[in-house]
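Repro:
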Amino acid sequence: MRSMWKGSVSFGLVSIPIQLYAATENKNVSLRQVHEADGGRIQYKRFCTIDGEEVPYAEIAKGYELPDGEMVVLTDEDMSELPLASSRAIDVLEFVPLESIDPIHFDKTYYLEPQKNAVKPYVVLRDALEKASHVAIAKVAIRQRETLAILRVHSDVLMMTTMLWPDEVRVPDFGFLHEDPPQVRPQELTMAGSLIDSLSEPVFEHEKYTDSYREALEAMIEAKAAGNETAKPKAVGAKADVVDLMEALQASVSEAKKSRKPSTAKKATAAKKPASGKRTPKSA
């Protein structure tokens, strides 16, 4: 990983110099736009819609379009004059329980690494957060944009997740919310609960899920690169609409139970099966 930002975590009179790293990475397969006939890359040029001339990157500024179509031009000098009180600092404002924050407000996540002379205060803050079962609410400026963030502990490392501002989260306003709710029968609610129970797990195991689309795309690219023929994916037949809610729930519960029986049986068989042979002692 490469450091993308250097600054400090500041809370009270304590300042902890840190380096910031992106905690996640996009695994999507990168595809280019090309000419189908010969594979040549498609290129785009930046040109001005007024004079039609191509514009070099150094002459490109930011602009805000007014409702009447007039454009307010903002240069790099203009942008540099904007106040960013938290520039190069992650200012801790308060501490709250993590469960008090709705995940809809979370944006991007980063790892925080302490600089060599700041390991001890870093560990103190990390351990104190874990002991208190709280997260820190902070304010930070990254790429000329100020944002709220939370600091929490993950795998013995401080992690920062930027947050959306309150007015950036849309309020759902759908027609059905203003209508009288449909009558739900107790049997339907009970059956829905049975479906939840049949598909419930004690913990979420992220590793058991894979991106099947990306795997198929990578396999197709490898096959084409090797000059092999590729098979078209089978068309998925459209499912018939299920009118009765109870029938749909009952069918879902049955399918969930069927899909779980083999794995349960295997575990039971493995548990009953006696160990064959003697163990070979480990070599010293």
